[in-house]
Amino acid sequence: xxxxxxxxxxxFLGQSVRWTAAGGLLxxxxxxxxxxxxxxxxxxxxxxxxxxxxxxxxxxxxxxRLEEGFIREDDEIVATRTGLYDISVRDGNIDQLTAAGQxxxxxxxxxxQNALLLPATQDMHIHLDKTFYGGPWQAPRPRQxxxxxxxxxxxxxxxxxxxxxxxxxxxxxxxxxHARGSTRARSHCNIDPVSGLKSLEHxxxxxxxxxDFPCEIVAFPQHGLLHSQVDGLMREAMQHGVGYVGGLDPTxxxxxxxxxxxxxxxxxxxxxxxxxxxxHETSPAGVAAIHYMIDTVAKxxxxxxxxxxxxGFALATLDGAALDKIIEGLAEQxxxxxxxxxxxxxxxxxxxxxxxxxxxxxGTDSVIDHWSPFGTGSMLEKANLYAQLYRGSDEFSLSxxxxxxxxxxxxxxxxxxxxxxxxxxxxxxxxxxxxxxxxAVARISPVVATFSRGKPVFALPPA
Length: 463
Prior knowledge:
30% of the residues lie in helices and 23% in strands. The longest helix has 16 residues, at 284-299. It is globular. The strands form 3 sheets. The protein has an 8-stranded parallel sheet with strand order 6-7-8-9-10-11-12-13. Strands 3-2-1-4 form a 4-stranded mixed sheet, with no helix packed on it. Strands 5-14-15-16 form a 4-stranded antiparallel sheet. It is α/β, with parallel strands linked by helices. The protein starts with 8 loop residues before the first helix and ends with a strand. Strand 15 and strand 16 (455-459) form a beta hairpin.
């Protein structure tokens, strides 16, 4: 039910949204993206030191803004109605929602000061193991005239330079993702002759230090599964608990499309793992590779629903019946697609994939490395790009665009009924300085605080 009237957008933007618990969180070693220090003031009234909250299984968020429904004029959605609530979190889940000011005053509490609560985002295609982030500025070398084999040769020189710092930089990236509202990821990790399993060991060590950041790992033969002869290393990676078998451009890199794909799928079958393959190829060979993968999954039903096509740029070269046929195959074999939402000539057919029931995910790919320096770690930014490319600029379309970044979780249903949060939902969520999800997507609103399964993992410093 409505709790309080929504402020006008001008009034809301004029308010300073502050997160009063930030200092204590940062003192507890959380929110590494900020340099704020903890307040030493004693607790007074119902609020207690924020540093105590990570050690509590039950606490209260006060004055949280939630979406309640759409506002219509002449049957058009023109705005979003919101209200203020107190939300209790217990054992990592949403416990109760009450009107603002009516929450259990005996609980440790934080004042969200009208910040909007949204589902946490997920970065479903990133390389945490090899990054310049956290180190000195370093731009990629010029790419003009360079082939992927040239980039691989460059990486063979670079990887030994990155390895001594790779665990610390992976942890820095995790902190950045938390600061941007993400609490879950899928990371590709190099398996190559240069690093052996060292990149994997460093990444797993980094993740072990951040149990509040669940992350699937893909063993990624960046230098080619056949070209670099790493079938044995890939199998060792499976024995180290890696969840996905990766692959890379079977024609352009390995020079043998069927043999490369067969080797990749055989590892997945032998170890009962999923597959997540980088496919950048835009030639007819890229289209042929997708068809071959669809046929392989059809012949091996245990792979159905367990294959992700990352990038899949060949899809952007198709239209008409050819595109419809390949999307039908992807949908029938329950492929998912992980896209960075490229702009320019390679505009991916994302709406067609989604309409056919193909799950589409997005990710940053890289924040800054020898491939690209432009990543921010923000999945809200990806939702913004998705809206610009495909959805549109109206209130309803912007609100729907958030789903690509949140594993399809949205506060409101298409009919305008609140469906999140509800008691029992996992409390992986973010507070943002916005009046509604449409504004958060359109303006890429600042994240005020992030919670992973109820645990606060990032907060802005107090104003």
